[in-house]
Amino acid sequence: MRILHVINDLRRSSGGAPKAVLELCQAFSRLGVETALFYGSCAAPEENVSHLANDGTQVFRAPLISLPGLGILRSTDSLKQAVAWADIVVLHGIYQGVVLSAARLCRRSNKPYFVMPHCSITKSVRERKRLRNSIIDVAYHRRYLEAASGLIFTNSAEERLSEKPDSPSTIVPLGVHASDYAIAPDAADQVRRRYEIPPHHSILLFLGRVTWKKGVTVLLDAFPRAQLPSPSTLILAGPIDREMRPAMQSAIQMRNPDRRVLYVGTADRAMRDQLYSAADASVLPSFAENYGYAAVESLLYGTPLIVSRGVAIWERLASAGAAFICEPNARELQLMIEEWGGRRRNLSQRHGLREVAIQEFGWEAQEPALSRAINRLHELGGVLPTASATQ
Questions:
Q1: Are the C-beta atoms of 71 and 64 separated by less than 8 Å?
Q2: Sign of the C-alpha dihedral computed for residues 239, 244, 249 and 254 taken in this order
Q3: What is the pLDDT of residues 26-47, one digit of tens each?
Q4: Domain tally for the chain?
Q5: In which domain, by residue range, is 107 found?
Q6: Cβ–Cβ < 8 Å for 263, 252
Q7: Whole-angstrom Cα distance, residue 283 to residue 29?
Q8: What CATH number is associated with residue 255?
Q9: pTM value?
Q10: Same domain, yes or no: 170 and 305
């Protein structure tokens, strides 16, 4: 059985979808499914895909013209080759030209395809630009979604919060490898020296795309108002959306020595290790998050976590006692930051949090559900599964 994953591009600035696709390719291969990945080569770092061949994943790519919100293929020959290779196609996202092109090819060749929207059809996301989304739906997205063999969600919370057509759906879980996340020794001293953070300041970290959907505007409003027992510095790391730059600049220029805001750019893996290891807590106040890699990563570093109910895994985090939970609004986030600040010295940082992350979100724990999901894709696509995928 051959399953092809299609995504517009693999740049970190595209959010969590590229990481999810790479993780799923590896997970499918480990379960005996012949797996391939097609992506538009729009400045995607080659190290993102170089390891996939070793795991048995075939990689297709094609030149891509990058336009705001779209990706237009210069040539569809490689995409045709990839679609012809597959028995089932999984399309990641709904707004990019590459996945729309793949959907057209699937319809013409009567090839079953599934859409994994990665939170892009949740009510909170669509409500923000309702008129634009309605026009796009009429133009082509409604047909794109309704012609699919089904939709794929990462958990039941994302499915429940989505505005989806009356079509079948299945849950394909995501996971993490704990070995990819290492607590950096002496990270606190290095981070404080690099960014000139006083030793008496606590460090609150946001790591992810600096964008509206991630609740960054809410965070920049709540943080200066929080009444904390000691001075604090908020570090934001990640690619920044153009529309967020004015708010970020205003927050950085805030003249309050007890509430500093720093933007440190996009974090590579080594920098990520250092920032999480140095932080006293991390915060993810998203309006909509179909999974929440940043939340799971925080736990893997043993870093206390403040997370909103917009993050789909918040109920699992709450049931495990692994996070401070709030609504994605400035007042509730302020109160939760204050609660964390009041309890900070009583929190045993790193104790138990990493174990919670491994037990709840490690790939070994997800593989039985993933095997069932693959069989469900075969069933909905009208394709017989291989013996290895049914085990």
A1: yes
A2: negative
A3: 999 999 999 999 987 655 555 5
A4: 2
A5: 2-175+363-390
A6: yes
A7: 33
A8: 3.40.50.2000
A9: 0.87
A10: no
